[in-house]
Amino acid sequence: MKFTDIFIRRPVLACVISLLIVVLGLMAFKNLDVREFPKINFAQVTVSASLPGASAESMQGFVTTPIEDAIASIDDIDYLTANSWMGGSSISVNLFPGTNTDSVVAQIISHIQQIQGTNLPAGMDQPTVQKGNPGSDAVLFLAFYSSKMTPEQISDYITRIVAPKIQAIPGVASASSMGSRSYAMRLWLDPRLMAADGVQPSDVQTAITNNNVQSTAGQLQGNWNVLNVQANTAMQSVNDFNNMVIKTDANGNVVRLRDIGYAELGSSNYNVDVLVHGNDGVIVQVNTKTVANPLSVAKSVKAILPQIMQQLPPTLHAEVVYDFSAFIEESIITVLHTLIEAVIIVIIVMLLCLGTLRATCIPMLTIPISLIGALAIMWACGFSINILTLLGMVLAIGLVVDDAIVVVENISRHLEEGMSAVDAAIQGAREIASPVITMTITLAAVFLPIGFAGGISGTLFTEFAFTLAGAVILSGIIALTLSPMMCARVLNPQQLQSPFLQLADRAFDSLAKHYQLALRQVLSIRWVIVIFAAILLVSCFFLYISTQAELAPDEDQGAVFALAEGPVNANFDYTKHYMLQIAKLYQQIPEQQTSVIITGQGGINKAESFVVLKPRDERRVSQMAIVNQINQASREVAGVTNYAFNMPTLPGGDFGMPVNFVLTSAGTYDALNDVANQIVGMARSSGMFVNVENSLTLNNPTLEVDINRDKAAQMGITSQQIDTALSVALSGARVSRFDLNGRNYYVIPQVYDEFRLRPNQLNSIYVATSTLGPDGNPEMVPLGSIVTLKNTVQPASLPQFQRINSATINGQMMPGYTLSDGIHFLQKAAQHFSAMGIGTDLTGESRQFLQEGNRMLVIFGFALIVIFLVLAAQFESFRDPFVILISVPLSLFGALVPLNIGLGTINIFTQIGLLTLVGLISKHGILIVQFANQAQINEGLSVTEAVIRGATLRLRPILMTTAAMTLGVVPLLFVKQGLANSQHDIALVIFFGMLIGTFFTLFVVPVFYSLIARVHTHTTKPTM
Question: Is the pLDDT of residue 999 over 90?
Fold first, then answer.
């Protein structure tokens, strides 16, 4: 007795197994998170350091390089990028996906502390270390704006009231303000009055340091009591600062701040501005934690927004300007709709092929049981309900019915031969058990390498692959337990009289006869078919390398982001003037719903903006078309370069243009810049790029101050005095802090704006000599008497990649060109300069694209090896697996042709589709080879006659499973919302791969079987 007999004779046991699967799945459903993509930590740690007034060269030599040297030895670092500019530097530590970020942060802090007192400049603040994702983890953008309140008042209200409430919500990582202007005590100085009163800038800095001190007086302790002592050593109001004594001269005259300027409660940064609906405002970006459910986080934030709005000051308004969770929800709902459509299509296909409703109900039950059961597997593995797991379920619909269809079809065949329902079920299940087990294990095994792949491919698609494999395994269990039992009790000889079934049988019988005749003719010209198959195999390689490639298709996410940049010496007013023109440009887009512009974000000559579009069903124009429209229209704004782009489809992509091509050199920045500009020129003339820019900027106008050291020494003036004078007067350095309503803010001294307009105004800044005047006070001299001014050009910043001087070429492709085209062009262009010691590398989305493309090829190779070994173990033969897998390149050919002609691209989704196709198409070969072997053993047929019989006998289930699979993915081809392009691409591969691959399989597999299959000895002993 075979094990399948048990379930036919014990129907309750068969039902209990399926019911347990359903119960466990329903229990798991309540505990599964809902997300856009699987949990994935694309970790990046940023180390920021500041030394106000220091040049870019000083920052690189004294700050950036020592920090890089200290942290470079830490494990799990993929690559380092660094940038040094005047007064600041930033080092991005990019980690491998899945790295424990907290551990790396702790190591970085420890390594920096070790060099803090030795290798870093004295007096420099502790560098800040922050962890975060390079991609967008923002789920909501909230705008707070007012026509009455100042940006400082809005920012302060958000910091005190709004941000704490949002950050208290579970799952919220941060509620960061974009374009905020926090309060600061601004001390505005008049250099003429300072000179008249004998005050030099260092006197102001010293007075602030000495008079604004936080008390740490301590306690008085008596015999029985304690009395806390608090000294009012700090200044807290504008009046306190105005009355602050700056200097007392030799005659006892007191100079206060109000005598040489004034204090006001102003902003720490006047060079940033947010424009919302024409009003000043601040954007709050709500970021989720990596492990959080973005949908529930967004729902919680929106739930407390009415309460926040009720408490807003009368003139302050708030609204959600962009809700990324809506796109996530739309994507998930779209896949669910597709899931339902696929179920309906597959049921119709089964009904048409099986001919009766009774027979159709049996495999139909497999769909809900397998999919619900897959939820239990997802929960046990720590997965979530996301777009990829749901996509796996959509593809599983056509797969989970395959095994049941094969079982029902084989049992029905015996029923037609005159057996009773029970006998037909027993015999049919025995015959088909081995192929079903083989097909199930094979399809599950094809996804095994993904679980060990690592990177974005492995992390993202492990849940997709294991969910699909889990559903298939469950369908195999159901096909061998529930399906035979139901066949024994549901099917009966009377159903054979159904006119529709008889019509279907006649159609398939006629098709089988014609197929058998065609197969015999093909077997007579076997070597022609072998040559034809070899040609298709070779053509797959050329089709693959000649097809456009990208990391993932762009998706319509309902918002267009843009970056703008003015000339390197442009000030904030210049940038804001032209961004107002960009704002008008946005207003002219009919599909725009809201637009936000943040001027000064990333630098005074830079700006960020985004345009939120109307819902997809309310506009005729796609997001990609609007991106091109903005880029075209922005060319008319001559003052700034504004380029729009789509947000990355996959998590972990960098914000900005997709092409990130790095040039490195051990030589000078000047030589590197020349090479970068030449390559940029070649790229622009190629017509392949919408925008292409060199990130390295060396032509930053600089006023160089040379000190006449001999003359300064004769006057008793030190370089420290001169540096302090310039820093206090010009840099806006944060020299202290003060308390305001329980929060501390910066104290920033600076001369009036009108004294910082022209180089010759440095003569209005005076410093004290060591010589005493007639009044007993030090004599004052203007800086112009001891320094020489010279206009020069210096780098705006000094970028490095892997601790080597670098320049990054950023680009965006023209429609019709892909990321692969751009990278290949730039690599070829850079080869012309390899003799100059120019190296190349990639960052951001380009790096992901290259890493994942290579990784998927490795996964594909390992998947073929795993399937071959699994089949070899099951068939106890190394020949049969080769025959079965010969159909793989044939199906790949069918999948690559539509991609090659432009219907899709090679991307991470189509690559997963190709991998899935390997398991799908091998099922056909398994059926043919398994039944051909049985025909040799049981009926004593020759190899050729056995394969003809096996292929003819299995034609109907092969065509049925192909129809179920191909038609089951048809809804994905017509999706218009959510991840429509990604789903379209994977469906395209499976549809054409299965369709064309099945056609070739029906002829090529028998040919190779007839040539190389092992001869099996005939035996009369039952083998099933």
Answer: no
